[in-house]
């Protein structure tokens, strides 16, 4: 009797069993954790900083009232630290990441900055270890495309938001400027893996990350996924010619 066929999903340009993807992604980020932030600077010519600043502005943490923010797949704390700096004394941030190595980097960075308002929790975006209606806002930056079941992660983000809370997703997107798309592909598939080999000692992980960008849904398709999980007032804003997009949805 033939074995039942296992559900497949993409891991970059490869097709792998759905149940295997998370372990493969974990291996990628375990390999690159210590050089992750440096590589972000090099790969994006520091543009990722402006993109994350735009995300922080959209999160808009208040100055004078309590604000609980969840940073999903935010291991090294890049977004979390920005939200703490932008918010008031009552702002509290929880970083949740499935990868212990990324969280270790984040904890070290938070300790060096003396940031007691940031806590770190190991957890899966598809099954967040938090109660319903816990957070005023939640976000994921450059992490959603690595989740095996994106719809489950969106449903979980919706679940843990308070009524009136908003979810933001900063992710690579579809280049909209004619000619830039070809240059972007040339740079992505040739320069970035080489940088990964030289700086992080791992070309394959960065080749996967480039391939995963091309597999991510276009903005309209992703917006439809947000609506399907219950989000309202869904919007998306392209930046840098469509290299990235900032998606937003509300739990109303």
Plain-language structure description:
With 252 residues, this protein is α/β, with parallel strands linked by helices. The chain has a single domain (9-250), classed as 3-Layer(aba) Sandwich (Rossmann fold), CATH 3.40.50.150. The protein is 46% helix and 24% strand. The protein is built from 9 helices and 9 strands. It has helices at residues 18-32, 36-44, 47-59, 78-86, 100-113, 150-160, 180-200, 203-215, 219-228, and strands spanning 8-11, 14-17, 67-72, 91-97, 118-122, 135-141, 161-172, 232-239, 244-250. A 7-stranded mixed beta sheet has the order 5-4-3-6-7-9-8, with helices on both faces. Helix 4 (78-86) links the parallel strand 3 (67-72) and strand 4. Helix 1 crosses helix 8 and helix 2 (36-44) packs antiparallel against helix 7 (180-200). The mean pLDDT is 89.
């Amino acid at each position: 009797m033939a074995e039942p066929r296992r559900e497949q999903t993409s891991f970059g340009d490869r097709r792998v069993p759905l149940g295997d993807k998370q372990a493969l992604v974990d291996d990628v980020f375990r390999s690159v954790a210590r050089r992750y932030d440096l590589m972000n600077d090099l790969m994006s010519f520091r543009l990722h900083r402006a993109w994350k600043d735009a995300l922080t502005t959209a999160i808009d943490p208040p100055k004078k009232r309590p604000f609980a923010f969840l940073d999903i797949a935010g291991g090294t704390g890049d977004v979390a630290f920005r939200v703490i700096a932008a918010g008031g004394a009552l702002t509290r941030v929880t970083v949740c990441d499935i990868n212990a190595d990324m969280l270790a980097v984040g904890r070290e960075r938070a300790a060096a900055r003396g940031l007691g308002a940031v806590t770190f929790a190991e957890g899966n975006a598809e099954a967040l270890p938090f109660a319903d209606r816990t957070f005023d806002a939640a976000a994921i930056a450059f992490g959603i495309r690595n989740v095996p079941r994106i719809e489950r992660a969106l449903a979980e983000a919706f679940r843990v938001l308070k009524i009136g809370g908003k979810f933001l997703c900063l992710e690579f997107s579809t280049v909209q400027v004619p000619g830039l798309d070809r240059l972007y592909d040339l740079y992505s598939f040739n320069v970035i893996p080489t940088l990964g080999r030289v700086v992080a000692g791992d070309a394959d992980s960065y080749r996967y990350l480039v391939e995963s960008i091309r597999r991510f849904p276009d903005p309209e398709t992703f917006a439809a996924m947000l609506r399907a999980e219950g989000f309202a007032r869904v919007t998306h804003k392209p930046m840098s010619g469509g290299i990235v997009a900032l998606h937003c949805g509300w739990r109303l």
